[in-house]
Amino acid sequence: RTEARLRAAGFGPDVFVARHANFAGLPTVLAAEGLTRVDLILADLGVSSMQIDNPDRGFSYKGVGPLEMRMNPLRGESAAQLIARSSEAELARLLEENADEPHAHLIARLLKQQPLEMTHTVARLLRAGLGAAFPRLAKADVKISIRRTFQALRIAVNDEFSALDALLRSLPQCLAPGGRVVMLTFHSGEDRRVKKAFQAGYRGRVYSAVADEVIRSTKEETFANRRASAAKLRWAVRAPD
Question: Which of 11, 43, 73, 240 has a CA-to-CA distance to 109 between 20 and 30 Å?
Fold first, then answer.
């Protein structure tokens, strides 16, 4: 879609090249283009809205669809298969590590109560279970826990943190001296990793400067795109060799 849109806008292959790859494969992609280092890297870690809004992909609890969640449906296991093979303890740890979910152990127990195949079944099960266990829990907090559960499962299904960690390790080798990296994260697990990697690089003099604070979307941006409200931008500048 991106390639077709930019070609129509007049960006030919001499100006723009599209490659379908994983964040972890950045060095390989650059090598294929005959590049050793680049001046700018922008990594948008957000999931495509087109994927989230398609109920057949199973990323959201808001629609009715299969409990799928694979970025590439032809590889790996679905969220339903992950839940089925994981123990209650493994699911609880996954919810804590991937989404900072405070009710991780209760949710893990609920997920193992019955076979789960559909997104709306999970949402209904968690809504009822959290409501019964915490009668005073606000509906908004229940919704947040359901959203965190879907986030945690998606991260695990697609091994997203491993790909992000690989990208963060490869950045110093991929950036030219004085080159800049900009990263957009959308939840605390991603932001922590980026923040720690940039700070460690700054202490080790790999980066000459890093963002002291995150940059958030403006009111106008958030009004135009509600999902922008979760975005956090951090940057770093590669030190001279």
Answer: 73
Reported as a single tens digit per residue, the pLDDT across 55-68 is 999 999 988 999 99
CA distance 78 to 65: 13
Question: Model confidence over 162-175: pLDDT tens digits?
Answer: 999 999 999 999 99
Please tell me the pTM assigned to this model.
0.86
**Strands across the sheet containing 38-44:** 38-44, 175-185, 232-238, 207-210
Partners of 235 in beta bridges: 182
Output the CA torsion 168→169→173→175 (10° steps). 10
Question: Would you state the structure tokens that stand for residue 134, as one six-digit string?
Answer: 């915490």
